[in-house]
Design a protein that fits this description.
Layout (H helix, E strand, L loop, with lengths): L1 H44 L9 E6 L2 E4 L15 E4 L17 H10 L5 E5 L2 H8 L21 E2 L7 H10 L5 E4 L3 E6 L2 H24 L7 H11 L10
Parallel strand pairs: 5-6
Antiparallel strand pairs: 1-2, 1-4, 2-3, 4-7, 6-7
Helix pairs in contact: 2-4, 3-5
Length: 244
């Protein structure tokens, strides 16, 4: 009798722990859904994006949570955010609305680098201007190192929402956390949502600085040795990665 009672207590404790864990996972997912909506509104209000042209996603327990297609951000509710498996070759999703038409490259980027936990895509003004001229951003400022190298590349052009575009973006983002997208816009990734948005804002600032510096005249490009030094210093700099 005592043994059976102990076994029942042990099973009950295990069930309770599993239930608590499942609840914690659901709450974290809800927080990410709310955060995605918050950042969508922020990027439009600060001029980083216009309308519903941009999209945001985040990784959660083997899935990506991504903004739905064509829904005004101010009308979004947490349950509207689409949910898709990352390790999958299908376009199946969970939610009342279809995911952003750019879900292909979000998933491809996550597959290419599992360190990324969130992605921000926008049609920010100066990033898009440079992308139209198919111009990469060189090491005109030391902050270029925040993206992993001595430049932010511009991917080759492909039609939006296609696997071909995904492939070209993954190539442009090799050893980088962002790229410009030819005749389209930009995409920035980070370990979490805050970091991804920070990267998108910083990329647009660099694009603006480079555009205006070219108009001003000669540009001095920082040498590769200096960028390597800055990359090392950045390992303990700025916004630290926190789970969200």
């Amino acid at each position: 009798m005592i043994v059976r009672s102990i076994s029942k207590v042990a099973l009950g404790s295990k069930s309770l722990l599993e239930g608590n864990y499942a609840l914690e996972v659901r709450l974290k997912e809800l927080e990410k859904r709310k955060k995605i909506i918050e950042l969508c509104l922020d990027m439009n209000s600060c001029g980083l994006n216009q309308g519903t042209s941009g999209n945001i996603s985040a990784v959660h327990e083997g899935y990506m949570l991504i903004t739905p297609t064509g829904i005004p951000y101010e009308k979004l509710e947490p349950h509207h955010i689409a949910k898709m498996k990352i390790v999958s070759d299908t376009n199946k999703w969970e939610g009342p609305f279809a995911p952003s038409t750019e879900w292909h490259f979000h998933r491809a980027i996550y597959k290419s680098n599992p360190d990324f936990g969130a992605i921000v895509h926008t049609h920010a003004l100066f990033s898009t201007v440079l992308s139209i001229s198919r111009t990469e951003i060189p090491a005109c400022h030391y902050m270029i190192a925040a993206f992993g190298g001595n430049s932010v590349r511009c991917s080759e052009y492909a039609t939006f929402g296609t696997e071909e575009l995904s492939e070209k973006i993954v190539v442009a983002m090799k050893d980088r956390s962002a790229c410009l997208m030819a005749n389209h816009g930009m995409v920035a990734a980070g370990t979490n949502l805050d970091k991804a948005m920070w990267s998108a804002v910083e990329l647009e600032a660099l694009a603006s600085q480079y555009y205006h510096a070219k108009m001003a005249g000669d540009i001095t490009i920082l040498p590769d040795d200096e960028i390597r030094i800055v990359i090392e210093k950045f390992k303990n700099y700025g916004l630290k990665s926190q789970p969200n």
